[in-house]
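Contributing: when you submit paired examples, paste them exactly as shown. First protein:
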Amino acid sequence: MIECTFVRRHPAALLALMGLLALPLAAQTKPAPKPQPSPAPAPAAAMSEDDKALYAVGLSIWKSLEVFDLTPAELALIQRGLAEAAAGKPAADVTIETYGPKIQALVQGRQKARADKEKARGAEFAAKAAQLPGAVKAESGLVYVELQASTGEFAKTTDRVKVHYRGTLVDGTEFDSSHKRGQPAEFPLGGVIKCWTEGVQKMKVGGKARLVCPSDIAYGDNGRPPSIPGGATLDFEVELLEAAAPQAAPAAPPAPHPAATPVPTPKQ
């Protein structure tokens, strides 16, 4: 059985990946057959529950394929391969045994290219944020902008903090919000991404700040799928509600005294 990490982790993508594997090697010299027009899909309201479930299969496959950052032409090749495989006529000269092991290398290459693109966008975004009034750019790349001053105590790395926050990508897409959940988040400040550990320490209880976090001090090249792509710069608005040393765990009760071990009586 072919060992392929991507396929094992994304079983819903297996059918779509068959399209990639079924692409003939001679496709660059042979003109692709002219696609036949497909019937218009039924409106969502007219679909049965089974229709909607099948439509959801397509959504799931696309989510699994997002890692490839496909161009329209590449997507068309996958659709062609999927159709040929479904018809029982996949290309004979491109086999899973030969090309299956190459999928992971393709995934890794596409991930890196996508992360590099995100990093470039993020660097431009962070540079603009660093020009805002009062903005301070740290050596780590963090851009800190105070939004509301406070006279409270500074947070410390060893503190457990309570915060309200909103996180967005550089295009403004919100990926997380404690406000929407209806309750603040609590966590040890030393146990989160480096950007937060560094940035929240600059805040006083009762204050608000904006933290612009390059991927190197956020979630790195891998990101946090599906909401945070690899290489993404993150933009947080944080309100520090509380910061205090964690309470010591209660002392364990003394262990009961072990029962006396009978002394064996020597044989007469």
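Second protein:
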Amino acid sequence: MVDRWPFRGPSMNTITHHLKISGMTCGGCSGRVKRVLESTPGVISAEVSHEANSGAILATEAVSKDELIATVINAGFTVNS
């Protein structure tokens, strides 16, 4: 795993956010969602599945779930609560 957050240290708390994402129809779609999420400052990693319509995002506490939802929506997909 590549650490995409250079300021993360042992004292940095992380949280895993789970999103239900719809509109993904193929591996290209899930790859796009993964890339845009991982380019978000504070996101350490993202695992996205178009088959399961879901995403699990590991991020620092500084990243809100609302910010992640907005990122997915801006990429052209829908997030269901």
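If you have annotations for the second protein, write them as plain sentences, like these:
The mean pLDDT is 90.
Strands lie at 14-22, 43-49, 54-60, 78-80.
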